[in-house]
Amino acid sequence: MTVQTPNSFRNQPDERGHFGQFGGRYVAETLMPLVLDLDREYRKAKEDPAFQAEFDDLLEHYVGRPSPLYFAPRITDELGKNALPGKGAQVWFKRDELNHTGAHKINNCVGQILLAMRMGKTRIIAETGAGQHGVATATVCARFGLPCVIFMGATDVARQAPNVFRMKLLGAEVVPVTAGAGTLKDAMNEALRDWVANVHNTFYIIGTAAGPHPYPELVRDFQSVIGKEARAQMLDRTGRLPDVLVAAIGGGSNAIGLFHPFLDDPSVKMLGVEAAGHGLDKEHAASLAGGRPGILHGNKTYLLQDDDGQILEGHSISAGLDYPGIGPEHSWLKEIGRVDYTSVTDKEALDAFQLLCRTEGIIPALEPAHAIAAVKKLAPTMGKDEIILANLCGRGDKDIFSVAEHLGVSL
Amino acid sequence: MTRLSAAFTKGRPALVTFVTGGDPTPGATASILDALVEGGADVIELGMPFTDPMADGPAIQLANLRSLGAGTTTADIFRIATEFRARHPEVPLVLMGYANPMTIRGADWFAAECVKAGVDGVICVDIPPEEDPELGPALRGAGVSLIRLATPTTDAARLPAVLDGSSGFLYYVSVAGITGMQQAAQTSIDEAVARIKASATIPVAVGFGVRTPEQAAAIAKVADGVVVGSALVDLVAKHGADAAGPVKELTAALAAAVHSARKGAL
To answer: What's the domain of life for this entry (chain A) (predicted)?
Structure first.
C-alpha cells in the first residue's frame, strides 16, 4: 500500500476528527451532542485572543512556563564514551518536569478547564492511571473552585497512595474503580459512564491526546506549547533545529506536544518510545508495536487486543504508560512514516532512570526514563555535531517507591 | 414483511428483552433465550460481550465479565444465534454490543455472519450516525437492520440524522445514563416518544432503567415497544445456568403487562 504524503503534516484532523483512517467520534448517542458542542466551542475559543491570553498567562505565572531547554553535558559525554570516533550526539532536554505539579499534564488541564468554564460547566471529572493527570486536574479545579471527581482503578489507588492523598488534599473526590482489572482503561470507562449520566453540567478533562474528536486535537494543541517553546529556544541557543526528537508514549500527549510544531521541518526526525514492559513477546503496553487498529474510548487507533477485538491489559513499570491504546494522531504518523516508533523494556527504563540521576542530578519519572533509554541507544550512532532533544515530561518523585521496590530496596 | 416489522405489527406493543450472550456460559444461553421466547418476548436482543462496556451499568458489566470469563468468543455468539434461528424460525433476533468486536474482522465479514446466522438487526452502542461508514453500509447491503439509539440529548435538529439509515426500530434510551440504573420520569418519556414518533416511520421502543411490569406497562401506553435488560440479567447473575425458570417467569409478567397496556384505553 502506498501512502500519499500530504503537503503539511500539521493540518490534521479533518472536520470529522479523522487523522487518516484513525480518530473519529465513536461515542454513545447521549454524548454525541455534547461532543459536537465541545467541538464548536473549541473552534471559537481557538479564534478568541482573550482565551489564548488567559491560557498563556496561567502557563507563565501558575505553571511556570516556559520550561528550560537544557544541554545535558555529562550524559552526552557518558553516551559518547563508547561511540566510534566522531560519533556521540549532544543530548538536550526539554524540562517539562519543572512545571507546577511535576509533569506536562498541567498544560492540558489549564486549557481544558478554561474551556469547561467557557461552556458553563460546573463539575469536572477525569480519569487517572499513575495519578499525575488526576493531580493536575485536581489542581486546576482547586485553582478555579470547581468540584472535581477523579476515577482511578482500584489497583492504581493501592499502588499510587501518595498521589491519591495529593488529590484529596486538593479537594478532589477520588473514586476507586473495581471493574475489570482496576487500571487506567477501567477508570476511563467509568469516567465515560459518569459523563453520560451527567452531561448537562459536567466536563470531562481527558488526560491524553486520545478519546473522541475534538479531544485528540485540543489536547495536542494545549500540549504543543512544549514543542513551540523548544523550537524557539533551540533556534535561539544554537541557531539550528534539533536532528532528532525523542519522547515517551502512553497515550502520547507529551510526545505529540513536542513533535507537532516540528512536523513540517523535514530535517527533524522523531522517535516515539512505547513501553515494552517485560518484552514485546510478553506483557507490554506497546500498542503500535504489538497491537492493531480498533475502536475504543471514542476513537479508532492502534490497540492491544485479541482476535475477537477484546481489549488486553497493558503492562509497564510506568503506570503512566500502562494503557492498551495510543492517541490516534500517532497511529496516523506511524502509518504515513513521518515519525518512527520504538519501544524499551522495564529494565532498560530502570537503567536509564538511574543513569540520568547520576549523570545530571535529575530524577526523572519512569515515563521519560523510557525516552532516555532510547536516547542511550541512539546517541552513540549519531555524529558529535548532531542534536537529540528528549522530552523530560515528568519528575520522578512519585516513582521512587516503585523504583526502590524494583531495585530490591526497602524504604 | 421482515421478522422485525412483524413483531411490531401484532396490534399491541412489543416486549423486547436483552440478555448477554455466553452468560454465565456459552452453553447456558440457549435455555435462557428459549425462556424469553416462551415467556412471550417479541424481540430478542443478544448481547455480544466486550471487555469495556462503557455504556453499561454494573449488572451488564458483570454479565460481560462472566461471559468472557467463561471463554465466550464471537464464534460462540454466532453459534448461539444460528441455533436460536433453527429453533425459532419466526422470532426476531438482534445483536447488541460495541464497535470493536463487530468491526475487528471487517464490517462486511460481520454483516455476512449476521446473515448466515439469521440475525435480523444490530445495535452498536458506540457508532453514532457520524461514524456510520464503519458499519452501516455493510449491514444495509446485507439486508440487516441497523437499529440506532436516540437519547434525551438527541434534539430535534439531530433526530433526522439518527433516523437516516436506521431500520427495524428506533431504540429510545429514556435516561441520559448507563443501563440498569434509574428510570426516567414517565412524563418525560411520554413527551420524548411523542416527539420522536412525529418524525419516525419506524417503531419506537423505549429502554434503560425499565425493571418492573408496572413501569413497562406505563411505557407501553405510548411506545411501540419496551426494552428490558438489566432486570433479566440480574436473574441470570443470581441463578446462573438455572436461570431459565425465573427468566421465563419475569418475561411472562412483563409480556402480560406490555401486551395489555392499551386495552381498556381504546
So the answer is: Bacteria
